[in-house]
Amino acid sequence: MSKKEIKLAKYAGFCYGVKRAVETAKKLKLENPNKNVYVFGELIHNADVINELEALGIRTLYEIPEKVENSICIIRSHGASPDIISKLTDAGFEIHDLTCLDVKKVQQKAMELVKDGYYLVIVGKAEHPEVVAIRAHAEQYGNNILVSNDVKELKQHEEKLKQNKKIGVVVQTTQRLETLNKIVEYLTSISKELKIYNTICLSTSHRQNEARELAKENDLILVVGSKKSANTTHLAEILNKISKTIHIENADELKDYDEILNSSEKIAVTAGASTPVNIIDNVINYIKGGK
Ligand code: SF4
User: Fold this and answer.
1) What's the chain's average pLDDT?
2) Which of 75, 143, 168, 181 has the greatest number of C-beta atoms within 10 Å?
């Protein structure tokens, strides 16, 4: 490959919430070698990290057993619904809550809005675990709640929304600002009172803003991270509209892109919040011709 200019984003890879979750999980196992350590749901969307944790004896729990002894259960950075936490506690788990503090803030705001009589709109993907937990927290105080990241879908509930005098909005921490803006524009047109909390986390905003600039300045931008990860796929969607963008999970997938890599002189690399540094390094080495 010809000599290339390669730029790695400053905000590539683990965010502080994921870093804290991974480090604390390892520390917990180290400090409790005789206890079973579980995480409820995959700690992060990255198979390599999950395998590494498994090798250390930190296992992923998908279903709650009836009774356990001598067992710790970690709540991952996405959070969990109050019902799940109480079932885990009843089963006998010692709970370690590693819900990211930014996610906790969204849960808090969502609960406040419902308590104060607002019809709550959660801007996000309904099936994403973070959103499921935010919704479950808010549902403790009422059922006037909608989850959507699409104006067309919200329009189907227009009558219901119009009947309610007050509408409150929170956002999944990893959503795109453009998505929030479109939904707010629509809700403004149909509501009398609208309260908006922009709860997109700082780590996501920094990562997206920096990547936008890099996409403008380079011939090609690579987004490294799991295709199951919300923040990584949103990053790729944003960049696709600005520049040539390739979303890969790891360096192995780059084999299919040799032609475009060869024809690009300036290449930028960014990565999602759940992408470990060694995977990013392997990608950089591949582009440099190290393969
Ligand atoms: S992406 Fe943001 S909200 Fe999610 S874990 Fe990272 S810092 Fe926390």
Assistant:
1) 95
2) 168
